[in-house]
Please model this.
Amino acid sequence: MTTGNVLKKEKEMSKILFNAVQSGQQALSEYESKRIVAGANVPITREVMAYSRQEAVDQAVKIGFPVVLKGSSPTLTHKTEMGMVRVNLKNKQDVAQAYDELMDKDIRVDGILIQEMVKGNREFVIGLTRDPQFGPCVMFGIGGIFTEALKDVSFRVAPLTDDDAREMIHEIRAVKLLDAFRGENAVDEDVLVKALVGIGELGMTHDEIAEIDINPLIVTEGKPVAVDALVILETHRA
Amino acid sequence: MEKFFDPKSVVVIGASNSSLNLGATICNMLKDYLHYTWPVYVVNSKGEMVNGCPGFSSVLDLPETPDLAVIIVAARHVPGIVKDCAKKGIKRIVIESAGFAEGGRDGTAMQREIDEVIKTNGIRIMGPNCLGTLSTRNKFCSFYGVNPSLVEMNQIFEAPGNISYIIQSGGVVVLVMESLYYDLVGINKIISIGNKCDVDEADLIDYFQNDETQVIGMYLENVADGRKLMEAAKKSRKPILMYKVGRTREGAMAAMSHTAGMASNDLIFDSACKQAGIIRLTSINELHSLPKMFTEMPLLKGNRVAMFTNSGAFGSIAADLLVEAGLQMVPLSSQTQDKLKKAGQVFNVKNPVDIGPAPPQTYLDIFEILLSADEVDGLLPLLSVWQTFVIDTLHELLKMCKHYDKPAAIYTPNAVAKSIAIRAKHRIPIFETPEEAVRALSVSHMFNESLLKRGFIYDQAECEIMDDKRNITGKMEAML
Model:
């Protein structure tokens, strides 16, 4: 990436965060959260916001089927539980119907997020938290719906060196999941390292970010991709 | 910082002749047990003399400005006394009184008052709620209430060592001092830091980089500034062995994300230790059981360990422990095995090497063969035998370890009590259990790895013998 692009990206990130803090948001929407984590070197799903049924269908065609539709709003932090996610939509009709269903719900959304459907058996999590003694800390571990039940995670205090990141990846109990697995490639660790270091940097440079969940980070063809992300802002503690 | 450990004049504020006065115990210690020759003054309401130390009713009346003031009065008087000390020009103060930040609202307000005074006058404070300092080489100690019949004070001061302790509890200080009765612990300095309103563990880690300290042992109950601690630890060329309480306490912060929900304080503290190269202890006894591995033995520079035993059972027990600790039971090369065959009495020339009844020379031959083998990084001798000549044999082993720059973690099954009885006197690092011996190898290896990771190298050529007391200082130099 050229310096110009980095600056542009940083500017975009700062703008999203600034606007959200100004408007008193507690968190960013998934779409905004993804812009932020993508700026920190976390690979994200191809996705776009749609504000009409026709737009949703056109964008789905562009991304390629199957796709996922999600209601998007900064207040919508538990989309699945609220029934605001439709997965594995295979054609235009599916998309149109899912769009209508999501819009008909009595839940305020800014728009509908059209997202590529990422498939993989291995799900990881990357997170950021702030410790009262140590400040921003980065988490890595087993993601998906069992994250909290398994609690197979490791932490490092930001900023992280590449070695710190590599060490924390290898610290989880289910470290074998990083190897070639059931016919799938081994996980590209370099991508994970860059992402973990990037999230640590984010914690160091943006005080307005309180916490981050990137979960799940699905591994497809050995490449981890952030399928969902949530950025919590510092304002909620005020 | 030096004046906290080697003051050339001291005032004990709050020492008097009333019964059970704690300040007086400090005067007694300095005068009767340490034969401290520099001036000791006392300040009390009557201005009376205590155990020959001239008494005054105010700090302001002292005939000189002492290097160090030790305050041991009720907390409510402390802020006023600190102000007097500032007026008198005293720059180093130990506040032993309790009842500040840990004692509710009034305490916090008094603490703030003190902070203000020290900031404007460039004063450094240890405590409050602490015992202060002990320095064996300077024959100085500010601890109150230490009963010399309980703790072998003479032994501590007569044989200064190279271990320094930073301890946030008076009780744990005594545990460490008492371990001298049965363990090989040579003390350089001990600091009881209490509430650490000013001087904290990070300042002391920095300070210990430039004195006789070889190993830093720590007991902490809380860390106020985690990042400051990490920065100091990352720069430390000396191993930091830390026991920290609060393993089970969960983070108290309100969490919206799953990440914050899963982040316990302890988990993060553990990670910070790994990043900063701090070795976290798993039991309080490790504060005195592990340092000898660093003061008496070279570091374990690889993970390949050879075991040598005359008891097959202990070979198997230790092998399991070794592998669990992430160390390797090294497969011995055919050359090494050939040499072992020629040594005689050897039942098994593979790792673990197992021998039958043999004279001391055979043991020495086998030590030499194993330590000189390229494939071996360290030795785990499990010797189930006890004769008087064993002490001499182990002394020879120590010399060989230094020569080959490889460590041995000695364990003597079936002779544990006898070994413990002689190890301090003969300065032989013997461990009490196979778990302890393997742990010693493991932390030695951990520290070596962390030195490499942090860009330090251990230069054997720079290792020099300081004096005939075998004070060996390893000098590590930054690669960059």
Notes: The longest strand of chain A covers residues 209-220.
